[in-house]
Amino acid sequence: MHPAVPPPGPTPAGPTPTGPTPTGPAPVEGWVPDVLDGFEQRSLALDPDFEGEVVTTLVRRRRGAPLPDDAGVDVLYVHGWTDYFFQTHLADFWEGLGVRFHALDLRKYGRSLRPHHTPGFVTSLRTYDEDIEAALAEMGHGPRRSTDRRLVLMGHSTGGLVLCLWAHHRPGRTDALVLNSPWLEFQTRKVGRLVLEPSIRAQAAIAPRSQLVNLDLGFYARSISARHDGAWQIDSAWRPDAGWRATPAWLAAIFSGHDRVARGLSIDVPILVLLSARSTPPVRWSEDMMRTDTVLDVVGIAARVPQLGRVTTLARVEGALHDVTLSAPEVRDVVWFETERWFRAYVRPRPAPEPAPERRGWRRWLPGRAGRG
């Protein structure tokens, strides 16, 4: 027996919510107020699995006035392992660029987690294709696109790995990809995968939902949660300090994703990868954990970036945490700068300046600025 997961609790995530907290499945039809103030959510029904009902949940700002400088671009953000969407400041950043922001809580995470679910459990990362397609169809970016807006996919950690595989198998479906510390390689790199993978796959075949030893000592949560040394209000029911105990079937699916990345992908759109400059092994607490990645091996991740596609940009950010957007304010400023610079270069170039009027008469003979005005 696996312990039942409690329904989403009333603990706020991000800014203090004023809307109701869902206590069960949200209506499949229509948008309802979200736990985040000023946001709304919609549960999208998926095919049931062996545990029963499954949904994925799309989150967006409540629709009001149009964006002041609409770029004609939509963003879909996908979270990582033991995570959910609470980063309202990320929505603020994209909307400041004239981009419509949407976030997705995948099946069995956050807003989509139900009491009968094994948290985060899947046996293949391709399972999430259904979640992504449901969200994109709601946004007008399904296979039969009903919008002329461009699409940027943004993924953090495991969400970055999932989106890389999705984009690789679906050329032409998105216009760009932003990866925030994507989990492209196992922490012990290829050698560690080769040692661990056979036993993990054997265990996945025998007892797919058994629980592996949890090595998370809560140090990353300590660095980001306002209940500890961090700055962010995080719902501990949706993101426990020590995470969830992984299952062998889920870890085998992750290994398969890493193997596919190692063989090389052919993503056909520009890719931005945002990554901390350094990692700190999570063996004992130190102040370095407030300015480094304590979850992934950033050197191993960086080595995989050129294998993703034809046009990749890697931005290593000094002082960044695992989720670079949760770093200290001065570090986030660098993240925003690098992201906007890439966005202006590859997604929405600034309009070319109007040419200076042709100089006429005697002025055309004067060099440089002397003939202007």
Itemize the secondary structure elements and their pairings.
Blueprint: E1 32-33, E2 39-45, E3 55-61, E4 73-78, H1 88-96, E5 99-105, H2 128-139, E6 150-156, H3 158-169, E7 176-180, H4 189-206, H5 219-224, H6 248-262, E8 271-276, H7 298-304, E9 312-317, H8 329-346
Parallel strand pairs: 4-5, 4-6, 6-7, 7-8, 8-9
Antiparallel strand pairs: 1-2, 2-3, 3-5
Your description of this structure?
By secondary structure, the protein is of the alpha/beta class. The protein has helices at 88-96, 128-139, 158-169, 189-206, 219-224, 248-262, 298-304, 329-346, and strands at 32-33, 39-45, 55-61, 73-78, 99-105, 150-156, 176-180, 271-276, 312-317. The protein has a nine-stranded mixed sheet, with helices on both faces. Helix 4 (189-206) runs antiparallel to helix 6 (248-262). The longest helix has 18 residues, at 189-206. The radius of gyration is 22 Å and the shape is globular. The protein starts with 31 loop residues before the first strand and ends in a 27-residue tail after the last helix.
